[in-house]
Amino acid sequence: MAREPGAAVYVAGHNGMVGSAIVRRLMSLGYVNIVTALHSELDLVDQRAVQAFFDRNRIDQVYLAAAKVGGIIANNSSPADFIYDNLLIEANIIKSSHDFGVPKLLFLGSSCIYPRLADQPIREEALMAGELEPTNEPYAVAKIAGIKLCESFNRQYGRDYRSVMPSNLYGPGDNYHASFSHVIPGLLRRFHDAREHGEAEVVIWGSGSPRREFLHVDDMAAASVHIMELDREAYQTSTTPMLSHVNVGTGSDCSIKDLAMAIAKVTGFTGKLTFDTSKPDGTPRKLLDVSRIRALGWESTIDLEDGLDDAYTWFVSHQADFRGR
C-alpha cells in the first residue's frame, strides 16, 4: 500500500455525501493536506476556472466525487442537465489533472452504467454489453464517458487514473429532498413525516419487487481510499487497459419491499405500506459482482440495519435543513 499522508489531495465535491465521507476517511488516516473548494469558489463546469484552480494548486491526488445526482424523478425531469453538467465536470477535472501533472486520480462512477438486464451479479465486463435503463440513461452515459476518459489518458499518456463503480449509496450527508432524492433518503423522510403527522399509510413508488444493493457511504469512502492507495502494479494486475474500473458493493441485495419494511422499523412507523404499481420500477435487479475488489483486499463492514439507523439519526439531527424542500 502506498499511503502518502503529506500529499496534496483534492476532493472534488467535498460537501456532498460521498466527498465529505472521503474527507472524513482521509483525515482519520492522517492525511493533512486536503484541498477543497466550494461551488461559490470554483464552478466545475467552467473549464477556464478549473484550469486556473489546478494551476494555483500543486495537486498530487484527485478524488473526483463531484457530480449532479438525483433519483428517478430528477433524472426523468432534467435529462439534459444531468448529461451536460456531468460530462463537463468530469472532462474539466480529468483533463486539468493531466495537463498539470497530477499522477493519481480516482473517478467515482455509478452502477447505473451497466445494462438494464445484465446478468446478475454484474461483473465489470458487462459495461456497454446491452441497453441502459431508460430512466437514468443520460446520467449513465456521462458516467461511462468518465470511465473512458480515465482509460484513454492511461493508454495514451501512461496516467494512473482509476475508477470505482459503487452500488446504491446512502448515509450521512444524503439528499432528503421530498421529490428529488434517492430511494433510501426518500423513504426515510416519507416514513418519518408519516409517523410525525400520524398518517395511517405510506405510498411507495412501484411494485416493491425490484432488488437493490445498498452501500453505506463510509464503506464507499474506505473502499475509495483503499483503491487509491494500492500500488500501481497491484491495481493494474487486477484490471486491463480497456477495463480499468472496479465494482464496490456489499455483495448482497434486498427487495424494495423489504427495504421499506426495514425503514418503517427504523423510523417507528407502524401504519400500512401501499405500493403504487402505476409508477416505474426501474431496473429489475442490480447486484454487483465484488470479487475483484475483495481480491484487492477490501470488503464492506457496515450492514444495512446499522447503516439505516446511522442515516436516520443523521437526518433527524439535520431535518431543519430540508424543511420546505
UniProtKB/TrEMBL annotation:
InterPro entries: Epimerase_deHydtase, GDP_fucose/colitose_synth, NAD(P)-bd_dom_sf. Keywords: Isomerase, Multifunctional enzyme, NADP, Oxidoreductase. Its EC number is 1.1.1.271. It holds the Pfam family Epimerase. The active site is at Y139 (proton donor/acceptor). Residues 9-233 form the NAD-dependent epimerase/dehydratase domain. It catalyses: GDP-beta-L-fucose + NADP(+) = GDP-4-dehydro-alpha-D-rhamnose + NADPH + H(+). NADP(+) binds at residues 13-19, 108-111, 143, 166-169, 182. CDD domains: GDP_FS_SDR_e (cd05239). The keyword Isomerase applies. It is an enzyme of class 1 (oxidoreductase). The record marks S110, C112 as: Important for catalytic activity. Pathway: Nucleotide-sugar biosynthesis; GDP-L-fucose biosynthesis via de novo pathway; GDP-L-fucose from GDP-alpha-D-mannose: step 2/2. Substrate binds at R190, W205, R212, D281. The keyword Oxidoreductase applies. Catalyzes the two-step NADP-dependent conversion of GDP-4-dehydro-6-deoxy-D-mannose to GDP-fucose, involving an epimerase and a reductase reaction. Belongs to the NAD(P)-dependent epimerase/dehydratase family. Fucose synthase subfamily. PANTHER family: GDP-L-FUCOSE SYNTHASE. This is GDP-L-fucose synthase. It comes from Cryobacterium breve.
